[in-house]
Amino acid sequence: MAKRRAVDKRRVKRLARERMDLLFGLAREVFASEPELARRYVSLARRIGSRCNVRLTAGDKLCICRDCNAFLVPGVNCRVRTHARRVVVSCLDCGGVRRVPVTRERRGKLNKALLVNTG
Questions:
Q1: Residue 89's CB: how many other CB atoms inside 10 A?
Q2: CA angle 83, 88, 93 (to 5 degrees)
Q3: Which of 10, 18, 50, 71 has CB atoms 3.0–4.6 Å from 38's, for a disulfide?
Q4: Topology (CATH) of 9-118
Q5: How far apart are CA 46 and CA 54, in angstroms?
Q6: pTM (2 d.p.)
Q7: Cα separation of 86 and 106, whole Å?
Q8: Domains of the chain: which residue ranges?
Q9: DSSP letter at 4?
Q10: Which of 59, 57, 56, 55 is nearest to 112 (CA)?
Q11: Distance between CA 49 and CA 71 in Å, rounded?
Q12: Tens of pLDDT along 7-65?
């Protein structure tokens, strides 16, 4: 019987995070010309994260539709509204709605995440 090598979990998670960041960057670049390819990149990044137990960042979570895995860009395929201490992000492809509560502590983080997606 062959011996199995020990897997360095930190290395695996770091590699998964790098790949997820790369895929999200590619999705941002490609979205204008090929939205379906951007959707594929997002689904691959989500799959890598779930297999390696790596969470998505707050900015990445906001730019994904939970229902159809679409890469969301405000003003293009999603609508962003503020309503009663919440940010409501509506996907224009499938009609999915995400409501993100906003407290004083989270305002700064949420603004940064939204600015990263639009920029």
A1: 22
A2: 145
A3: 71
A4: 1.20.5
A5: 9
A6: 0.78
A7: 11
A8: 9-118
A9: P
A10: 59
A11: 16
A12: 788 899 999 999 999 999 999 999 999 999 999 999 999 999 999 999 998 888 888 99
